[in-house]
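Posting this for the archive.
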Amino acid sequence: MEPSNDVALDIIVSNVVSVFRTRCHLNLRTIGLEGTNVIYKPEMGKVLMKLRKPRITASIWSSGKIICTGATSEEEAKLGARRLARCLQKIGFKVRFSDFKVVNVLAVCSLPFQIRLIEFTKNNRPIASYEPELHPAATYRIKNLRSTVQVFSTGNITVTGPNVQSVASAVEQIYPLLFECQKTVINHTHM
């Protein structure tokens, strides 16, 4: 049985992490006092700010570096970062939105079959590793895509990579390898 090329897998992006710089010093206490939806964490030297639309959480440092998490697409991550910069401008900082980049994407995908993890790991060493005592998933690292795939026996996979394109490519690359290690389901029909 060959894997068919027309299999449509739903790759659901669940978190896009992005960074940008404001190119100005940020007074965290001012943000904590005047910002909305903020949590000031002086012991950690940062402020957390949440946006509702798009739903993101930002870690803000006084150096002007900001990390945004929670977006579900690269476009949403950029929109959220820009809205956050605008919020800081309204508080009174001379923010210049710069050096925006997506640094990490987490996605999940459910395959239509279960997987024999031990066979998958044996077939794909040293790229694949599986230590059931430590973690229920096999890990498959794709160096050229800078992506990591966690494969569960249920057929669920989680993929992390530097951007949405590399995550999608990682799923395309691993699918045929998983397909050949699928568990065969035996149907017991009663007469």
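The mean pLDDT is 93. The chain has two domains: 15-103, 111-179.
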